[in-house]
Amino acid sequence: VPAIIVAIDGPSGTGKSSTSKAVATALGLRYLDTGAQYRAITWWMVENGIDTADAEAVADAAAKPEIVSGTDPLAPTITVDGIDVSGPIRTQEVTSKVSAVSAVPRVRTLITELQRSIAAGAEGGILVEGRDIGTTVLPDADLKVFLTASPEARAARRSGELKGKEATDLAATREALLRRDAADSGRKTSPLAKAEDAVEVDTSDLTLQQVIECVVTLVEEKR
Ligand code: C5P
């Protein structure tokens, strides 16, 4: 069986990560969470006192941190200069700053190179999830999926994920999520967008299990 490359893109709260990990696990594919890489570089900027609103300062420092991503869908790991940052990259501070950092062209060039080399080295195929995988990072992917969902469904999922961790106010979650997606969709360099040849799946009224089955079927049709 030739190694398959699957690109899964879409905004936050569509079930993208849960779906991607489950599909990769079910089909024996490697897995890459590209959002975690942008979060990791953002975490490093904050840690090193770099003003994330200062695009020039971010660009100047972008090559300094060494980001290493594991590709096991059952235990995705990410380290920055050898430090496991899987937890710290999910804080509200990093989440609120990641869109500004990921909009800096130099950051995107560096992370995109990293993503392409990981995909090229993945034996047995890989599923890569993000915002610009089908359009920019891996335009020759064998299958491109674009997940969507209504703002209500996305905010509800996000609140569920945050429960017990941080503020779970639904209206605030919805606002923060829409603001981040607007920034990701509106930036100049490889914005969040559906590739022309991507299959769009609206997950608003589907259970996670249904979305997983749908994507597994799409991959199997390509193998
Ligand atoms: O998927 P996740 O919510 O962890 O992504 C965090 C952020 O990383 C996104 O809001 C976006 O700013 C950035 N990102 C990106 N391109 C990708 C993946 C994520 O710009 N391929």
Automatic annotation (TrEMBL):
Task: List the catalysed reactions.
Answer: dCMP + ATP = dCDP + ADP; CMP + ATP = CDP + ADP
Top enzyme category? transferase
Q: Identify the gene encoding this protein.
A: cmk
- Would the keyword Oxidoreductase turn up in this protein's UniProt record? no
Q: Which InterPro entries match?
A: Cytidylate_kin, Cytidylate_kinase_dom, P-loop_NTPase
- Does the record carry Transcription as a key word? no
Organism, as annotated = Streptomyces albidoflavus
Q: What is its EC number?
A: 2.7.4.25
Q: Which GO terms describe its molecular function?
A: ATP binding; dCMP kinase activity
Say which family it is in.
Belongs to the cytidylate kinase family. Type 1 subfamily.
Example GO CC term: the record gives:
cytosol
Sites binding ATP sit at: 10-18
Name of the protein described by the UniProt record: Cytidylate kinase
